[in-house]
Prior knowledge:
The chain is of the alpha/beta class. The chain contains 29 helices and 32 strands.
Amino acid sequence: MNRPLPQTPFQLLIVSKTHLGGGFCVGGIAQNGRSVRLCMPNQAGKDHVNKEYEIGDVWRIHDYYVPNKIVAPHTEDIVVLTKERLRKSDKLVEAIEKLMPPVCGGIEQLYDGAVRVAENGILYIGRDQVPEQSTLFWRPDRHLTLKGTNTRFRYVYTSDQGEFYLTYKGLKPADALLPANTLVRVSLARWWKPEDAIHQEERCHLQVSGWFDESSADEVPLDNSSPPEYYPEEYPEAYPNDYSNSYTDNYTDNYTDLPIAVVTPTRVPVTTDLPQLLHQYFGFREFRPYQQPIIESVLARHDTLVIMSTGAGKSLCYQLPALVFNGLTVVISPLISLMQDQVAHLTQFGIEAAALNSQLSEDERYDVLRKMRNGQLRLLYLSPEMLVRANTIMLLRECQVECLVVDEAHCISRWGHDFRAEYRQISSVREQLDDVPVLALTATATRQVRTDIAQNLHLQNVVEYVAPFDRPNLFLAVQPRQNGLQQVLAFLAEHRNQAGIIYCSTRNQVDDLTAALNEAGIAALSYHAGLDDMTRNENQHRFIIDEVTVMVATVAFGMGIDKPDIRFVLNYNLPSDPESYYQQIGRAGRDGDRADCLMLYGPDDFRTVRWMISERPADQQAQASARLQHMSAWVQHTGCRRKWLINYFDGETAADECSMCDTCLAAGDTQPSGSDELTAYAQLFFTCVKQLNEKFGMTQVVDVLRGSRSQKILSWKHDRLPTYGQGKETSKKQWQQLVTQFFAQKLLVQNDMGVIRLTETGKEVLDGKQVLGTFKLAPTASTYTSTTTGDEGLFDQLRTLRMRLAREHSIAPYMIFSDRTLREMSAHLPKSEAELLEIHGVGQRKVEEYGEV
Ligand code: ADP
Ligand code: MG
């Protein structure tokens, strides 16, 4: 039943309102029987526009256009320009039946038999049989029953073959039962596939978008009280809502109606002593490599292209010039979460910044607009969708934009891994802003992407900075996976209280490992595309604010994490290629401090990756197999791992061994290590545990044994215990290794707080009733020697204090002070403001705000 879009003017019967993004979406039937969907140029946050349409209304549409990006089966999208409301239909069900006769029968009748069933029972349409339009009406032969939680409802169709699911997307409260033969509107979600399952095909899920009750058919209530839902998988933030030519849309935000006078910005004259500004605002003593020349290039108003690895400090390259410029620096950033983090962080530094995106409430948005027009903002973060809107451009034209920053600029390129259609319109906006200078930044270094960026943004006489991509602060290690969980536990024992990510290749593995860790007393969260949006956001948030430090995730957890103090990345499985591996570990140690990257791999990983490759399009398989070969070569490499990677990516031969990978460390370690009697170590350790009355964690026991003079030892007077200093010969790392053994042999148990106690078997060993075997102690040098030089007790105290402040200010702890700042403080507790200002990451503003620390 494929009908053309109607000629104007035409009459439109409104039949549905469904959730879409943060707002909702309106569906209707044209007088010629064609289904249409009313789109706003940018749907989210426009609910007051959609509110004028009521189900059952008949409108006359005078003028509309088709957005330029139409993807089948969603061929019914139109953007209405002018319209008028005619009346309310008094026979809604009849009218629908006449305009779009419903399909009567079972699910197999829907969409001309194209419906398929996913493993989890969800009904969908595949790429091979795309229907002509995405909505239809249905009178089911069986009841549809409701299943679900507050956040996600599904209607279940039960037949002899089992249960089949359709998501519920309507606005009105879901009924527990839709009796057989109810008139139901069915629609299709956007094309989607799980982010972490590249081998799966794309699909459109079937959804129930409304139903019509014959008795009260023409007064379907509209419920606005339920919170808007947001399904990132169906409408991911990255979905190209490419209605870019829609500047003529009759809807306006009335930015110009704001009752605010445009005032000329009054700025305190600023110094252009760049190092001084760096210290004053950010508290850093020196620029990182490339930052200063880049900043100078930006200030000289050159178009500038920056390729620097993750964590190199790209943001500073526009944040600092923004302080010098008189007008506004506009930053295009692809993810709302990234913008919000940056704005929160800048605010901490006392820099006026704001973000304008679709998730703001009307009040918040007005607030930002007011500040903009008053010249109170130094930096404005914009989503690309927001940038290209006519109103935004108008507003920006009033605002003296000094620099247009394109962050994550690889999103421009179709060759990049995060292509965003809206990014390709930035250049046209730039023209409308009188060719304001552009600064484009990315970590993606391939030449193709680089050329694409320069061409697409029309960069002129561009100054390019390509920094070497090595990440010297990442320690790289590889181990065959034997008893995976034990290996993870041992690694985590060496990274207590540190934030880190454990990557697994499948959702099931993520769930299993998270459960196992929680069972072992380690608080861990999980993140993958199978979790609902709320859970994912919440878990991400809890991780960012350090509430829980271990995140077990699929690759779905990645971009959007700006947390600089991630101290480790553990790959539980072999990644499919060095490119993905480097991207994953790249999330660690952005603050420049040491971070540890451990990869575990096993034979089944190779099978999994090969299988994933076999599912890819034929023309990509050879390339992908070759990359897997490289990954495999790297894993088995006996030379310096870093050198290998630099050679692989840069084609350059690095001169020196790095001493920051397992192979270099092994080569440098010549200490003999024979077999050791485990029992003697166990008895010493357990005696100490007993002397501490089984009230402390591993760190304290080891500190006592190693004769530490930490604050925590001294204040508890633990230096007076008989075992104090008795285990000095054994390194911290070796003790950790031993403790792992004790746990593995179930001699010790640990509660959630990390307090350790002896088990019955442990007591027998202590009493000499049981003897343990021999054991090969690792060489003395610790693999994961932390860079800690300060007083650990004091460091912990400062961390706790920071956590408290972070809670009070509702921000992430790292935004107050980095770990490195705390470490410097604990090494030398500042006695005066001048000393405080000397500490890394403490600027004038921080002293005012957090002087009490
Ligand atoms: P990128 O965008 O290149 O991945 P960011 O801009 O997020 O990196 O910076 C990563 C971290 O480095 C941040 O925590 C930032 O505060 C820190 N940083 C940036 N410049 C400096 C500097 N000059 N000295 C010390 N730390 C810096
Ligand atoms: Mg960045």
